[in-house]
Specification:
The structure holds 2 protein chains of 2 kinds.
Chain A (H helix, E strand, L loop, with lengths): L5 E9 L6 H4 L19 H4 L22 E4 L11 H9 L3 E4 L4 H10 L2 E4 L2 H9 L4 E5 L4 E3 L5 E3 L4 H9 L3 H6 L2 H11 L1
Parallel strand pairs in A: 1-2, 2-3, 3-4
Antiparallel strand pairs in A: 1-5, 5-6, 6-7
Helix pairs in contact in A: 3-4
Chain B lengths: L5 H8 L1 E3 L7 E4 L2 E4 L5 H10 L9 E4 L8 H4 L8 H17 L3 E2 L9 H7 L8 E4 L13 E4 L2 H10 L1 E4 L3 E8 L8 H12 L7 E6 L1 H4 L3 H9 L8 E3 L4 H7 L8 H11 L12 E6 L6 E3 L7 E3 L11 H10 L14 E4 L7 H11 L9 E4 L4 H9 L2 H8 L2 E2 L20 E4 L14 E4 L2 H10 L11
Parallel strand pairs in B: 3-4, 3-6, 4-5, 6-7, 9-10, 9-12, 10-11, 15-16, 15-18, 16-17, 18-19
Antiparallel strand pairs in B: 1-2, 2-8, 13-14
Helix pairs in contact in B: 2-6, 7-9, 13-15, 13-16
Classes of the chains: A alpha/beta, B alpha/beta.
Chain lengths: 191, 467
């Protein structure tokens, strides 16, 4: 994975609360055996009519949303199914960060594993972001800070080890494989 | 010595390396459940890095999500109708052969929904850490295991190292007093709990369900409750192991036998939360006040008594949008809402006692004209038992479809779907938009309420059939 430092982008706003992973990518797309190309299935039922044509009123289909890398969502995005296809689809589509007041546990974990930044902000910041779609923001991973236009800055919580891995392009598998000695010792105690 | 919770005890037993401010704990996983949907990309990672599966003996593999429930496609030599599903099933067979894993395959008599066969085989045990690339792994917490869903990247970590990097979750005690009334089930209880704490009420927490009402539940019922912990956003749900737990496990193929069994239960008895152990949060519920429940919206927290009404929330645009999707009016009565499909199945409610309850309601009745009722047992073993007990015949005589086991219409991956705009009373766990098929409208309820709806063709209080 490429190291992540600062993401600068305009925002796309989806104010719905409880956007579940079934909405992010419906189950019928999960019969794939690879992780590539899932961007076409992102929000499929919201984005496309049953005949496959784009729904013009859906936010991602509007011209101002093109090229945006930061998704601002209503409270509690990512609830429901553990499908990692959800962050895979968001990343493949072009998103690099998701911002909300609450992000569901499994989705947040899956996002961190793939370099999609889960950014949890306070209520006031969230309200401002919801009210200002298309705002130019910067997400500074080393500082764990979200910068809004006009210089306002808020910090966000992020698990320190996950942040270290993302900033340095390190993958956690290597770290775990490096613990083989401790794992073998634990297994010996079990036996 | 400090008083500890059940969760803390299980957690501490599995720390290979304890957490520090800079690094999460390395947590050992006793049992890894694997299925066809969330594993292919993990096996690809192992292959590309030249890694092997560290503990084949701790990896239980089966197929359930995209498998057909049509007998001809499972046993009759008819090809799997859905090409992509057939390919995924084949990929799992290839991956298991390549990595030397035993596979409980499509025609295996032990096959079933992964969260149903783990307990059925006795592989699910108190005090274990159990993970699976599926959020309903929380089901296994009913045995006093720490069981939670993971993503595919983590499936790869567990295959290669039998460990995960984890931060310790917070604890939430849900104390349930009283006794469930007649015709009121564990499903109604857990729906009422989610209605109370919300779909994010458990985020960041492991729930321990406690109190006399929980102790009085059977293992099947405890599994229904723990299964839906994730629908409250919780990492996991747990129940302290007790005599009910031990009686369920005794003699099962993968449970300890003989002297090892005696040692195991002596150990399991020590797992329950110590008196005075403290939880980060607690909630009290009176189960005597719970009625048969049904959802009316697009998440499991949007729930009301079957005898109740759709709430009114003027000015709430998200709420209004959910009701518009469901085609329901604020303030309207839920009872008598017409339904076209009934699904009795899923890891929430497809165990033998669920089918017995549904059969009690169906006995002597017919599925209403214009209603499609699908009964999908949770495992092939449950299917055989239900056939031996005559339950299957009751469903067939009533005009319901009796299928092979699998996840089926809970998420419609295998082609068992609800058509756009139709209402489905479902014993599954999620009523999200499009969950059961594009445009499907799901009303979550108990097996009794689902069977009653099938007979009347509309939402019905099951107590009209249970005396």
């Amino acid at each position: 994975m490429d190291p992540i430092t600062v993401i600068r982008s305009r925002t796309v706003v989806m104010p719905s609360t409880n956007i579940d992973t079934d909405q992010i990518i419906p189950a019928r797309f999960l019969t794939t055996t690879t992780r590539e190309g899932l961007g076409t299935a992102l929000f499929a039922d919201l984005r496309k009519a049953p005949d496959g044509s784009p729904r013009p009123d859906f936010i991602l289909n509007r011209p101002e949303s093109q090229g945006c890398q930061v998704l601002v969502a209503g409270r509690n995005i990512g609830c429901g199914s553990s499908r990692e296809h959800a962050p895979w689809a968001l990343l493949d589509y072009g998103f690099r960060a998701v911002v909300s007041t609450e992000i569901a546990d499994i989705f947040r974990n899956n996002s961190l594993k793939n370099g999609l930044l889960p950014v949890v902000v306070d209520e006031a910041t969230h309200q401002w972001l919801l009210a200002n779609p298309g705002a130019e923001v910067a997400i500074d991973l080393p500082a764990a800070a979200l910068r809004l236009p006009g210089g306002r800055e808020v910090t966000f919580p992020i698990e320190p080890f996950a942040r270290y891995c993302l900033m340095n392009g390190i993958d956690e598998m290597e770290f775990l494989l490096g613990k083989a000695g401790a794992i073998a010792a634990y297994e010996a105690r079990l036996a | 010595m400090t008083a500890k919770t059940l969760f803390e005890k299980v957690w501490e037993r599995h720390e290979v390396v304890p957490e520090t401010p800079d690094t999460p704990a390395v947590l050992y996983i006793d049992l890894h459940l694997t299925h066809e949907v969330t594993s292919p990309q993990a096996f690809s990672v192992l292959r590309s890095r030249g890694l092997e599966v560290r503990r084949r003996d701790r990896t239980l593999v089966t197929m359930d999500h995209s498998t057909p429930t049509d007998t001809a496609q499972v046993f009759g030599g008819v090809p799997i109708a859905l090409d992509s599903a057939a390919k995924q099933v084949r990929q799992l067979e290839l991956n298991c052969a390549e990595f030397g894993l035993d596979l409980i395959g499509l025609r295996d008599q032990r096959r079933g929904i992964v969260h149903i066969i783990g307990p059925e085989l006795g592989a699910t045990q108190p005090g274990k850490t159990i993970v699976c690339g599926d959020s309903h792994t929380s089901t296994h917490g009913a045995f006093g295991a720490l069981a939670f869903g993971i993503g595919t990247t983590e499936v790869g970590y567990v295959l290669a190292t039998q460990c995960l990097l984890q931060r310790k979750a917070k604890t939430l005690a849900i104390e349930v007093a009283g006794r469930l009334g007649p015709g009121v089930t564990a499903k109604d209880l857990v729906l009422a709990i989610i209605g109370r704490i919300g779909v994010n009420g458990g985020t960041g927490h492991v729930i321990e369900f406690r109190g006399p009402a929980i102790a009085a539940l059977s293992m099947d019922e405890r599994m229904t409750v723990c299964n839906m912990s994730i629908e409250a956003g919780a990492r996991a749900g747990m129940v302290a192991p007790d005599e009910t737990t031990f009686a369920y496990l005794k003699g099962r193929p993968r449970a300890p036998q003989g002297e090892a069994w005696e040692r195991a239960i002596a150990d399991w008895r020590t797992l329950g939360s110590d008196p005075g152990a403290s939880f980060d949060k607690s909630v009290h519920i009176d189960s005597g006040a719970v009625e048969p429940m049904i959802t009316y919206g697009t998440n499991p927290g949007m729930v009301a008594p079957v005898s109740g009404r759709v709430p009114e929330r003027p000015g709430d645009a998200v709420f209004a949008r959910a009701l518009a999707y469901m085609g329901l009016e604020p303030g309207s009565s839920l009872r008598d809402q017409p339904v076209q499909v009934v699904f009795i199945g899923s890891c929430t409610n497809a165990r033998l006692s669920d089918l017995e309850l549904a059969a009690r309601v169906f006995q002597g009745h017919k599925v209403a004209p214009g209603v499609r009722a699908l009964v999908v047992p949770g495992s092939q073993q449950i299917k055989r038992e239900a056939e031996a007990l005559g339950l299957a015949q009751i469903f067939i005589d009533a005009g319901a479809e009796w299928r092979e086991s699998g996840c089926s219409m809970c998420l419609g991956m295998n082609g068992d779907t609800v058509d756009p705009g139709l209402y489905c009373v479902s014993t599954s766990n999620r009523n999200f938009e499009g969950r059961q098929g594009l445009g499907s409208r799901t009303l979550l309820a108990s097996p009794a309420t689902a069977a009653a709806a099938a007979i009347r063709g509309r939402v019905t209080d099951p107590r009209e059939f249970i005396h």
